[in-house]
Amino acid sequence: MAVQINPSILSADFARLAEEAKAVQGADWLHVDVMDNHFVPNLTLGVPVVESLARATDTPLDCHLMIEDPDRWAPQYVEAGASSVTFHVEAAAAPVRLAREIRAKGARASMALKPATPIEPYEDLLPELDMLLVMTVEPGFGGQAFLDIMLPKIRRTRELIGKHGLQLWLQVDGGVSAATIERCAEAGADVFVAGSAVYGAKDPADAVRALRAQAEAATAGASWACDH
Ligand code: DX5
Ligand code: ZN
What we know:
The chain is α/β, with parallel strands linked by helices. The chain is built from eight helices and eight strands. The radius of gyration is 16 Å and the shape is globular.
């Protein structure tokens, strides 16, 4: 299974987003953190910026909505040009309906869990999703320390994906770096968001390559990645 590296532009220079997108050429997706200062105590960007960024780069956009009322707003991010839209289950009134709407509009539908939200109650929803995001920090800010107490949840989520024979991607976000990415991959993650570890590096494209190499090696050695 191929691993994917998604640099988070939260740690980029917001005045130079088009250049910052080019600085991570080779990345699979650009991770765009949308925060509304209600669901999380921080404010970033919205639909108009996503629209402009989608025009400015060929790298597909992975929009992570840390907002209240995603049922109302998420479809607009698909229209703005996002190829994947992640909503938080804690904020969604009707997650199944919302995932179906995102898919119907032509994007990948993804659902995120905050650290204190378990995966088990959502087992039956997994077939409705293209990706599940297990947050490895409390959402809201870049540069926080990785919560390794999330590793068992990543493992259990990977087991559920296997149990149901799904193609679902498993994303981790928060504190992912050279020091933590291998543990995430071994536990079962295959899509890795990295903000400060990429944009804080001297050469962001190089950081993407290095993270990918680490994640690939760790995935190759992981039991969940075996076909037999
Ligand atoms: C945090 C955001 C992350 C953030 C990660 O709430 O969802 O995407 O950019 O930043 P790092 O990789 O620095 O922890
Ligand atoms: Zn994020």
